[in-house]
Amino acid sequence: MSQQKLTLTYLNEDDRAYGLAGMVISLASLRAIDRVAEVSLDSEGPMIEFSHEYYFSGSPSISPKATWDNLVQNFHITTSMVVSNILARSIVRMKEEAPAAIMKEIYSEVEREGRDTCALEEDEIENLYNNALMRASRLFRNPRLHPAIDEFARVLSRRRTLSGLEIRDELHMLQLI
Asked: Quick one: pLDDT band at residue 2, thresholds 50, 70, 90?
């Protein structure tokens, strides 16, 4: 067991690679990997660059409901990524449960963002968060997946930057998709 304490900031390069691996794997589990243009471990900003499809905000020819549905779907994707980042770092890398205080802090941020960005009600936010947590828990608590997740984190550490196509190829070779 590791004596390091998991925080919302990355502890080191290895921690950062596992966080990014967790986010990418969550995208694959949601069948949203096609929305990724590139990932970079060296990025000073967000490590994941999304394609234009992710940022699409609507047009006059698309109904407001379709635009809102897309917004909520993207909110679900980002919620899943955040939860998966923490669970990959704690469960897979450190072999520990995610600290309750961090999970509570994440939920508070998800709740605020859900209200502000999507105008979701508290029960809708809770359901969305619980869905993301359940999905990520199934992925990262499965010990049979740990060797592939470890290897994907090593690939990210070694290659530093991967395009969307390269990500799909790597995940396919590791049998993660």
From this structure: very low
CATH of residue 46's domain is 1.20.58.760
Nearest to 20 by CA among 174, 166, 152: 152
The residue ranking higher by pLDDT, 158 or 67, is 158
- pLDDT over 50 (residue 3): no
Residue 141 — φ and ψ, nearest 5°?
A: -90, -5
Residues whose CB is less than 8 angstroms from the CB of residue 117 and which lie 6 or more positions away in sequence, other chains included: 71, 75
Helix (H, G, I), strand (E, B) or coil at 17: helix
User: What's the pLDDT at 59?
Assistant: 65
pTM of the model: 0.88
The beta strand positions in the chain, using DSSP E, are 36-40, 48-50, 161-163
CB 8 within 8 A of CB 102: yes
Backbone φ and ψ of 24, nearest 5°: -65, -45
Does 3 fall in a domain? no
